[in-house]
């Protein structure tokens, strides 16, 4: 509704307002600076001569300048001496889970795959006397402090089913 009201005021007496604006005298432009007019009428040949003229003093100075470039000497590294040690990670075969082809085959020492982590957490949960932190560290090539942290902070999910007699039956 508000659009209709504003449109009425916008279109009210449009033609007479347009005629009034068109009939107004156009404003006179601001006067140009004197040099701007001189540039437009300047003698083009004088500028071209100035560009093409050679300055003998500058040419002699340019001839005195001599630039000689040399490549830096190439350093050849000898075979002995300063070699950085190359860190090659030791890999171990994983204890494959039930996924077979999708499981990771090799893992760096000190690390375990997801399947191995779930397996060792589950084994420790059901048989904590057999699967102690020391045995897990030796079995999976892990540090003892990492295994203790893993067993303390990560717990596998457990599925709990409630007996049917505790559920309330819906009476229809």
UniProtKB/TrEMBL annotation:
Kindly list the GO CC terms recorded for this protein. mitochondrion
Q: Which GO terms describe its biological process?
A: mitochondrial respiratory chain complex I assembly
Region Disordered: start-end pairs: 19-42
The family database entries (InterPro entries) matched by this protein are listed as:
NDUFAF4 (IPR009622)
Give the family this protein belongs to, as stated in its UniProt record.
Belongs to the NDUFAF4 family.
- Return the PANTHER family for the record: NADH DEHYDROGENASE [UBIQUINONE] 1 ALPHA SUBCOMPLEX ASSEMBLY FACTOR 4, UPF0240 PROTEIN
> Subunit info?
Binds calmodulin. Interacts with NDUFAF3.
Supply the name of the protein. NADH dehydrogenase [ubiquinone] 1 alpha subcomplex assembly factor 4
Q: What's the encoding gene here?
A: Ndufaf4
